[in-house]
Design brief:
- There is one protein chain.
- This protein has about 200 residues and is mainly β.
- About 15% of the residues lie in helices and about 40% in strands.
- The protein has helices spanning about 65-70, 125-130, 165-170, 190-200, and strands at about 10-20, 20-25, 40, 45-55, 55-60, 80-85, 105-110, 115-125, 140-145, 145-150, 160-165, 180-185.
- The strands form two sheets. A six-stranded antiparallel β-barrel has the order 1-2-5-4-3-6.
- A hairpin with a 2-residue loop joins β1 (about 10-20) and β2.
- The radius of gyration is 17 Å and the shape is globular.
């Protein structure tokens, strides 16, 4: 479980393909604090540390993860947003994030807001999935590349987020431009409410 508050950007130092899997080796400031089997969100995708060596750590992404996320597009040298799992006695500064990416979206616009930025993302809309809570609502929460953000101006298949300078500098939003592919995780609370409504538990 995560909060969507990115700790830093890790740098990809190696990518190894093995059958349908990819092994990503990364470097970040807290490598020495990691342990094998620890969960870390990478651009919002929860992956398990499988190896620690020479100041780096390695995680493995399987076929389904690669197909649902942007991890298969990563290249050596890319910045990846990383967050270790929540400490349950701490503050929840973002929102409840599972680390289970639902789908990708494409950045279709970046607008200057006089010191901050508005990013617009467009995703594939599926009516049946929307009935299950896979959509955005105004002032609701959404996770973009692992970053907990507030939705602005949602449409059926797009939404905006406002990015302040701190977030722009300390996450890989500084590398996102028109055409960039990002990971989305829709709000788990919305999914539960949609499911309860479908079952007639709430009206």
């Amino acid at each position: 479980m995560f909060s969507g508050i990115v700790e830093e950007c890790a740098k990809v130092v190696s990518i190894v393909k093995e059958m349908e899997n990819i092994h990503l080796t990364l470097k970040c400031s807290f490598v020495d604090e990691l342990e094998i089997d620890q969960s870390i969100a990478h651009n919002g995708v929860c992956l398990t540390v499988v190896s620690l060596q020479n100041g780096t750590y390695t995680v493995t992404a399987m076929k389904e993860t690669i197909e649902r996320s942007n991890l298969g597009l990563l290249q050596v040298g890319d910045d990846v947003n990383v967050e270790r799992s929540m400490v349950m006695n701490g503050r929840l500064d973002g929102h409840i994030v599972q680390g289970h990416v639902d789908q990708t979206a494409k950045c279709i616009a970046v607008d200057d807001a006089e010191g901050s930025w508005y990013y617009t993302f467009k995703y594939e809309f599926d009516k049946e999935m929307a009935k299950r809570g896979y959509f955005t609502v105004d002032k609701g929460s959404v996770t973009v590349n692992g970053v907990s953000l507030t939705v602005c101006n949602p449409t059926e298949d797009s939404f905006q987020v406002a990015i302040i300078p701190y977030t722009h500098e300390h996450t890989n939003f500084h590398a996102i431009s028109e055409g960039s592919v990002v990971n989305l995780e829709f709000d788990i609370l919305g999914k539960y409410i949609a499911r309860m409504a479908a079952l007639g538990v709430v009206r």
